[in-house]
Fold this protein.
Amino acid sequence: MSNSNEQPLLSVRNLRIEFPTRRGDLVAVDDISFDIAPGEILGVVGESGAGKSLTGAAIIGLLEPPGRIAQGEILLEGRRIDNLPYEEIRAIRGRQIGAIFQDPLTSLNPLYSVSRQLIETIRTHLPLNERQARDRALELLEEVGIPGASERIDHYPHQFSGGMRQRVVIALALCAEPRLIIADEPTTALDVSIQAQIISLLKRLCHEHGTAVMLVTHDMGVIAEAADRVAVMYSGRIAEIGPVQEVVRAAKHPYTHGLMGSIPHIGHHVDQLTQIQGSMPRLQEIPPGCAFNPRCENVTDRCRVERPNLQAAAHSEVACHLFDAPRDNSQMEARAGE
Amino acid sequence: MNDMSQNASKNGAPLLSVDGLVRHFDVSAPYLNRLFEGLDRAYVRAVDGINFDIGRGETFSLVGESGCGKSTVARLIVGLYQPTRGSIKYEGVEIGPPEAARDRRRMQSHMQMIFQDPYASLNPRWRVTEIVAEPIRVRRLLSDKREITARVGDLLSQVGLSPADGDRFPHEFSGGQRQRISIARALAGEPEFLVCDEPTSALDVSVQAQILNLMKELQSRLGLTYLFISHDLAVVYHVSTKVGVMYLGKLVEWADTKTLFENPRHPYTRMLLDAIPDLEMTGRQRIPVAGEVPSPINPPSGCAFHPRCPHADDRCRTEAPAPIIHDGVHVACHAVADGRIN
């Protein structure tokens, strides 16, 4: 694709995540592949249960048992990181891949002051002494826009508001200047005005530090504003991936199309919103063929039996039999890209 | 909705009118701490003097950020909280103060509430039939068991579920289906006024669209009036006929939907509208809004919004603005009143 001339920072290849149960394995993420270029913000959207957070967790090695990577590989700068021993992935997590989670109150330890948490993280990853680490912590807090950082550095998490806490969490993720940040619903728990502040902060920091971000969210508005490219997930698969403008303005996959129509818009009055009938299937009930086929208006017999693969359509890639015509070309392109 | 709104225009009186409504919560330290540490009593001014009317068949929405008091207003209206001061009139009958208990009971039988979290608002040990039949039993609308079952089946089909779903338990349903059960339960009491407190906030967008469409359809079929509480301005734009914007317990602006969104007057409304991430916004650099909502225990002096307002002057810092009516828009802002901003 667009970044074929440079090595991707992160490359996920045919990732499959399973949960073994007594009644067989549940496939939560099914054969997904994508790349993130250095400095790029990749948005990952989908409804709850689509597998977007699991993908993020698998990348930073925080997949909770019994969930496991059943197939595929995850490469960070060409180095395989999905099969590393615990200590090694721990060294990468924080140093090379930072993480920001949804609820800033649960990702901070309420018993330790913010300075202590920042200094601990900095000293774990960087060869600095206490004094230098404290200076760096202060610098980070100023960078993420906490007013009066020098007075507030010794405060405890409960003394900060929600937006300020999320800034502290971002500072924590930035401690060791990671190349990639996995941000899982970073603005979902925040009010709109604060959400706008956090999005622009994330964008600015990525721009300044050249950090890539995998931004996982269910809010299409956040993606539209922050991301360069977007992957739309449905039932553990990528339905469509492409430049954000194209996916938002000219959605190709019938699911993405329905999703866009179901979002109410200010200034664009409709009596009824477009609705996709039904709901996303449970993991044990994913239909054969295309997972979206029972809800799709353009369904054909082929969709019920044959699973569509991602293929090029304009600047995006889409997994839908409707876009089958230039099939050979797309496969050749995909090969050339690798 | 049509014959209902004609009704409303005939007699002109609002279905619900709220005047000077105040609710303070006492969050003082215990008596001995106050005595020895010299602390004063402290109050959260959750709702601090608001006025609005809702006409029959309308959807009135309250928007604002968390902690602005919008859910408290909803709870005051359905009687889950008692107002500290102020009046709530339903069909012209006062139901606010404690001495109006009898009228309140009578009038509240016309109201029902839909809550935000469909996981917490349904009893996990009851079958769906029992959940939906509860208001019918409480109000003694039907007594025959067979009639109740038939009515529940009818309600379930109205909200897009099947009558056979009545035998299942809430955990067997997805979030969107549970919210449909909550709506069926609310309709079972045969209300004319529904208070919906963030009914779609816990749902995914495609499911949200289904629920919003269902609510609109039920409104036009049954002539319902909604008080709709949400923090999502796009949802509010889609469902409402009138919108009130709340900030720190006060209604800062109140107008019909089109006017409010096309021509917002209060600086806070402008800020909120500017802050929403939008699909049209790809790549645009926005100016982020400074500051956060202050604590409602110690709200700023004068206009509560002045520390974040780009138009604030000395008067805003000392004197709380009273709402004025400006081209049919109720707005509480000195800058608008003085013509400093248009």
User: Anything to note?
Assistant: The interface with chain A takes residues 65-66, 174-177, 204-210, 212-213, 216, 231, 233-235, 237-238, 261-262, 271-286, 288-289, 292-293 of chain B (CB under 8 Å). The first strand of chain B starts at residue 16 and ends at 26. The two ends of chain B are 35 Å apart (CA to CA). Residues 1-10 of chain B have pLDDT under 50 and may be disordered.
